[in-house]
UniProtKB/TrEMBL annotation, chains A, B:
The species this protein was found in: Arthrobacter cheniae
Domain Peptidase M20 dimerisation: 178-276
Pfam families, alphabetized: M20_dimer (PF07687), Peptidase_M20 (PF01546)
InterPro entries on file: Bact_exopeptidase_dim_dom (IPR036264), Peptidase_M20 (IPR002933), Peptidase_M20_dimer (IPR011650), Peptidase_M20A (IPR050072), Succinyl-DAP_deSuclase_DapE (IPR010174)
Protein name (database record): Succinyl-diaminopimelate desuccinylase
Length: 363, 363
């Protein structure tokens, strides 16, 4: 992947067009340097902000001595570009009327554009604001730029309330499901494929794992007034060594999105029970977050924005803020159902409306 | 893979030690240049042989004007080296008493050593002999060095009878199963793995293919007096793109080793029927060979060697000779059940006995 030199971003331009500019800066996880450079240099031109950088995480904040501080956070990485011919959710972005197509259009460069526009527009906000633009959200939790900052610059994550600008289609989404990944390893015995009876086929032996996953009915769990729908899926499979060898190994990667009534340990127990008899190893996990909407700061934000709260299915870093004691909600432009699809897109008005709601709340 | 310069091979040394020398020349398919160089230069030192080379296929023959001509053929490539720690069927070779371990020990550098020893020893054979040492046997049939030679030097494959020195443990094996490869492609629909219900999981959808393959009972088919046992297996599987995306594609590679009563087309029909409802594409096929032991030249060889013929399960190039109208059998040192295993080995006496049997027949 080639990082093009960061062009200057105009933070005072229309926020939908600013979104398009960000989409054109390809930033698949692990390759965020270019977009981070562009964001950092744009923010450093704003005299009312203190700016620091940690790796490819850029942070900026006002220091007005307000009685409340809020965090506005968003990740700057995306999942890999689509590979299917004709996919529009790719780089560079394209406009179709007022609809903007491109990788990250919903997840979540619209939200990042709103953060940047607010950073430039709100020189005198009613609450002090900390802006966090972070890397490595779309990969293993252990790589998270936000997690890294929580260790290296914890003072930057002190706040009364946080808004994560993940796509919620303009509604407020409380809490989030947790996520855990597992590797299921099936071992066989290699032999020449012309004498299969001398070996044990590790791909055939994987059939039962896939049958159990296919037949599993994911639960919907009621937590603090909201319904969290779970997902449990094989996301990768690989097995076999050569076209004439009975395969002696198959590895299935499983992703479990579990409701916030469970800890990662309970999620692991659940998957181990479902796949009993197989070798299951947990490789990654991040706890969910209960909605937390009863917290006063959260309630005040919901009242100001004026939308009915819903549950968040996808894991988001509200869980990380929640673990740090900072109540947090998801509120951002775009339809989360389009995230990671080949056809990812956002409507210009959705980005503009999100910006307007936050300007109203913070002015 | 680094090709070391070809050291001189001493074709008059003990044939078991000559086998060890060949094992030390790593020659995984596609990387046969080094061993082909060594074989070519050793053969060119023998004045009674005419030698030509085509790619990494080396051919040598006597021109004594005998009434019969026989081919002695063997491939010089091997499957990839084993990856498991402690595997002994690797490079370089090792001796344990009189047992020789190394990649290719059974499949089939013992046979190649016998060919080379015969080439040096038999300056006045009772039948004219054509020696063929060819590349790319352990990969797709379309790459076969023997197939290439059949097109470019067909005169080199004219003979009354052919012996392929594939491992048969000193017995004579007639005919061989055919082999065909298929790709089964399962298509789904990508979505974020936290909202699995928006996508279609192509790995879960592959479960039924694996169940059918796992539950399939391969047949044993009686052909011309011999029993051919079939094998039908998934040999590779790959699916999924990222840990948080519902996979939209899974590909399963299937290898069918079918009895010589079937054509490749009939084998394809059989697999299509078994996997009905799935997208199956045949990617490679090679017909089997009926035993052909009723042919006078084959019968004479069997009588001279004095062993009870058995069926050959693995596909070998007897099928290619059979298609050219040259009756052919498998006869070589080593246990075919060890071929392609992590622990491939051959006993020194097996190689010596094979050499002795052929010297007796041809002197």
């Amino acid at each position: 992947m080639i990082q093009t030199p960061a062009p200057a971003l105009d933070l005072t331009s229309d926020v939908a067009h600013l979104t398009a500019r960000l989409l054109d800066l390809e930033s698949v996880s692990g390759h965020e340097a270019g977009i981070a450079d562009a964001i950092e240099s744009a923010l450093r031109r704003l005299d009312h902000l203190e700016v620091v950088r940690n790796g490819d995480c850029v942070m900026a904040r006002t220091m007005l001595g307000r009685s409340e501080r809020v965090i506005l956070a968003g990740h700057i990485d995306t999942v890999p570009l689509p590979t299917a011919a004709g996919s529009r959710g790719t780089v560079p972005s394209t406009w179709e009327g007022e609809t903007l197509f491109g990788r990250g259009a919903t997840d979540m460069k619209g939200g990042v554009a709103v953060q940047l526009a607010l950073a430039a527009a709100l020189t005198e906000p009613t609450r002090d604001i900390t802006f966090i633009f972070y890397d490595h959200e779309e990969v293993e939790a252990s790589l998270s730029g936000l997690g890294r900052v929580a260790h290296s610059h914890p003072e930057w994550l002190e706040a009364d309330f946080a808004v994560l600008l993940e796509p919620t289609d303009g509604t407020v989404e409380g809490g989030c499901n947790g996520t855990a990944r597992f590797e299921v390893r099936i071992t066989g015995k290699a032999s020449h494929s012309a004498r299969a009876w001398m070996g044990v086929n590790a791909i055939h032996a994987a059939a039962d794992v896939l049958v159990r996953l296919r037949d599993h009915q994911p639960a919907t769990v009621h937590v603090d007034g909201l319904d969290y729908r779970e997902s449990l899926n094989a996301v990768k499979v690989t097995g076999g060594t050569a076209g004439n060898v009975i395969p002696d190994s198959t590895v299935i990667e499983v992703n479990y999105r579990f409701a916030p009534d469970k800890t990662p340990e309970q999620a692991e127990e659940y998957v181990r029970a479902l796949l009993e008899g197989f070798d299951v190893e947990r490789t990654d996990a991040a706890a969910g977050a209960r909605p937390g909407l009863q917290h006063p700061a959260a309630a005040a934000f919901v009242a100001a924005v004026g939308a009915e709260p819903k549950p968040k299915y996808g894991w988001t870093d509200v869980a990380r803020f929640s673990a740090l004691g900072v109540p947090a909600v998801n509120f951002g432009p775009g339809d989360a159902l389009l995230a990671h699809t080949d056809d990812e897109h956002v409507h210009a008005d959705a980005v503009r409306a999100c910006l307007q709601a936050l300007v109203t709340w913070l002015s």
